[in-house]
Design a protein that fits this description.
4-stranded antiparallel sheet, alpha+beta, 161 residues
């Protein structure tokens, strides 16, 4: 009877990051796939297929790191709105020191993955890369918005005269 490796053994053998997709399957950075159980596929030998799977991996990774950034950023913006209206503490008081550095670190992580994704898109065959133009424009706008978070928060509550 042949030996069938489980998901953890397959992941160790692939020796790269894996992300779970919405359909409960996993895609690895090297293009390998798995159902998370006993059915796995090695990285494709066809270069175009490997590039498409690597692009899918990086696209999912960008969605994940963007979500990890946007959730705390949205909480900071909500707290800032409370502060401006006089109903809450300044974000520094509410979230403690270091929240701006944490958002910057997460924004830098987004930029790094976005750069990897752009490089992967450049390697894709032309017929595959065209649909991603609108997605890149949306990501550029989101990066702009992410950079603006720290500048929209006042140092103190405005004094009314």
């Amino acid at each position: 009877m042949p030996y069938i490796e489980d998901f953890s053994e397959f992941g160790q053998r692939m020796a790269c990051e894996a992300l779970q997709l919405k359909d409960v399957s996993f895609v690895f950075a090297n293009g390998a796939r798995s159902d998370g159980g006993w059915h796995h596929s090695e990285p494709p030998t066809d270069e175009a297929a490997r590039l498409r799977l690597n692009h899918e991996f990086l696209r999912v990774k960008l969605e994940r790191v963007t979500h990890r950034h946007n959730d705390p950023r949205d909480r900071v913006e909500t707290q800032n709105e409370f502060f401006r209206s006089g109903w809450g503490n300044h974000p520094d008081d509410h979230f403690g020191p270091g929240w701006q550095e944490e958002l910057k670190r997460r924004a830098d992580e987004i930029a790094a993955v976005d750069k990897e994704l752009a490089a992967a898109e450049a390697k894709l065959p032309a017929e595959v890369s065209d649909p991603f133009v609108a997605l890149r424009k949306r990501r550029a706008w989101e990066k702009f918005e992410a950079a603006q978070v720290g500048t929209r928060i006042p140092d103190a509550l405005p004094v009314s005269e």
